[in-house]
Amino acid sequence: MNELSPLFRKLFLELFESLPRQGPGSRACVARALSLCSDLPSDPKILDLGCGVGAQTMHLAEFTSGIITAVDIHAPSIEHLKARVAELGLSKRVIPMAAEMTDTGLPPESFDLVWSEGALYNIGIGKALSVCRSLLRPRGYAAFTDAVWTIDDPPPEVRELFESDYPGMGRVDDLLAIIAATGFTAVGHFTLPDEAWWTDFYSPMEKCLGEMRQRYRGNDEALAVIDILAREPEMHRKHSNCYAYEFFVAHR
User: Fold this and answer.
1) 174-231 confidence digits (pLDDT tens)
2) Which of 35, 47, 222, 251 is the most exposed, fewest CB within 10 Å of its CB?
3) How is 179-211 classified by DSSP, letter by letter?
């Protein structure tokens, strides 16, 4: 089955748009990464690139007192976030906007912190960090997560799953080298704990997949797509020793 087929895309979006977050992460991880940004202004201007439905955006709003611009290319995710922002009375502090990561239209050197969880790899980490650097004020921070290998020779089924989506995936040292090459100084990094994969990501994903199996019962093509989507949490259950998500914080 062609994984880029219209049906695959439809079911992929149906699944991921229903989740609390679109990748590994947690409130505690946001707090820990923010603690590494030691000299932020008291009311920082923050850009959340590739924000999805905005789980981490809401945590940033909780932990800081500045203005947060949240950008994602997927307009339905931005509409979801706008509704959440309005519901919480945060419209004066959180500004969701639909735009491409490489063409936000935002002024250069206008942010104290550029944040991105699990999104920068979409355009390549080096290119993405150059975009971040152009948007940061001098001595501003970039904080981002990225998938990394933790062993040299993962089983073929694991490598195949990841390289189908992220052929350039590297190890922590590779990311640190890219950070240095793009004009940043690494401040610190840490590995996301396993609960950051499950609580708001894989556990609700598996629940939603079960509901989708019932909803599409009798539709063999749709069920085959659902089986493909279900490989991801099952792979993590079996092979989480092979890879991790790492949170990096860097200083311009």
Assistant:
1) 999 999 999 999 999 999 999 999 999 999 999 999 999 999 999 999 999 999 999 9
2) 35
3) HHHTT-EEEEEEEPPTHHHIIIIIHHHHHHHHH
- Predicted TM-score (pTM) of this structure: 0.94
SS3 112: strand
3-class SS shares of the chain: helix, strand, coil, % to 5:
45, 20, 30
Give the whole-angstrom CA distance, residue 124 versus residue 183. 16
Report long-range pairs for 52-55 (Cβ below 8 Å, ≥24 apart): 52/21, 52/22, 52/23, 52/77, 52/119, 53/17, 53/19, 53/20, 53/21, 53/22, 53/77, 53/80, 53/81, 53/84, 54/80, 54/81, 54/84, 54/85, 54/94, 54/96, 55/20, 55/21, 55/25, 55/200
Beta strand spans in 118-157 (E): 136-149
Q: Which H or E run contains 131? A: helix 125-135
Q: Is 134 exposed, middle or buried (0-12, 13-18, 19+ CB in 10 A)?
A: middle
Backbone phi and psi for residue 245, each to the nearest 5 degrees, phi listed first: -110, 130
Name the amino acid, one letter, at 202.
Y
pLDDT digits (tens, 9 = 90+) for 45-70: 999 999 999 999 999 999 999 999 99
Report the DSSP beta bridge partners of residue 100.
Answer: 103
DSSP H/E element including 246? strand 243-251
Q: Strand pairing partners for 251?
A: 141, 185
